[in-house]
Amino acid sequence: MLTLFLCVLIAALAFEYINGFHDAANAIATVVSTKVLTPRQAIMLAAVCNLFGALMGTAVAKAVGKDFVDVSAVTMATVLAALLGAIIWNLITWWFGIPSSSSHALVGGLCGAGIASSPKGWDVLLWGTGLWPKLIKPMILSPLIGFVLGAIIMLLLNFLLFKSQPSWINRVFGRLQIVSAAFMGLSHGTNDAQKTMGIIALAMYTGTQSGAFNELPGWLGFLKSEKFEIPPWVVIVCAITMFAGTAGGGWRIIKTMGHKMVKLMPVHGFAAETTAAVIIQSASHMGIPLSTTHVISTSIMGVGATRRLSAVKWGIVHRIVWAWVLTLPVTGMLGYWLLKLLDVFGFH
């Protein structure tokens, strides 16, 4: 069982690293697109802010670990299958440069693997207390809020800056955009890094409750978890891994987010980043594992649409929407069949 837990830990940290470079574009695409910062500068800014954001609270981690699937039905293999399913989907969407949700990939994988591992089937899913209020409803509402709020903030800025010189606007908002990009990076770390913390804590709790950790040597006693909680060492390790992943960049998705969807100026980048960061930070405090990708994408669309609807390249948006729609069912199926495959090879 210790070997299986180590596999879960390695897969969880791999997911966290991939999440870092897969979602690096969330925080820095606009600041790169507007040429306020070079790609290298922007990535380091996002990495540092992700690191500090990951250390701010554990509300999202607790939600991912215990609010979506009945923990009594979860085994170590369930967690491993969920992580592998999410990793596969993240790598596929990264390869094609499509911004998709790492949050939904992880929860989808967990739900599919949970259904496969329990005789209760679909009843293992906590619809009323977790999936609907903390995943499905935010998945529907957050993109709409991002689009509308992004458009409102941009229209307000247009009104306030109506008589200002373009050169002055670019100079001032070029500086302000560094602040908004840092805020976005901090918010991303606060929400996204916690999801892996919750998965590792779930694996520790599962191993302890099943008795699999009873024979652990004393120096590994820190792995035992009699109740579901997020140990400090898990927070620190996940924060550092997110930092490393973000520092690795994610150029394919950065190109889609920052260049292909809509042409941005510094004031547009500031409006989009500020909109997204406020929404994500609010969700983090409420323990909602929001899709940062959904929010920043639709914030950029809302800001771009204030210029004219044709300014948004809706063909690219169409591809992104399909990725959003497919993430949960695809990762659910991946988690389900990967659990069955692990069972065949004797991983229980």
Molecular structure report:
- Helix content is 75%, strand content 0%.
- It has 13 helices and no strands.
- Helix 1 runs antiparallel to helix 8, helix 3 packs across helix 8 and helix 8 packs across helix 9.
- The radius of gyration is 20 Å and the shape is elongated.
- It has 348 residues and is an all-alpha fold.
- 57% of the residues are buried.
Task: Spell out the key features of this protein.
mainly alpha; elongated
Oligomer: single chain
Radius of gyration (Å): 20 Å
List low-confidence stretches: none
Q: For the report, how would you describe the main beta sheet?
A: none
Order of helices and strands, N to C? Answer: HHHHHHHHHHHHH
**Please, what is the average pLDDT?**
86
Number of helices: 13
Q: What class, by secondary structure content?
A: mainly alpha
- What is the approximate shape? elongated
* Percentage of β-strand residues: under 5%
Number of strands: 0
**Helical percentage:** over 70%
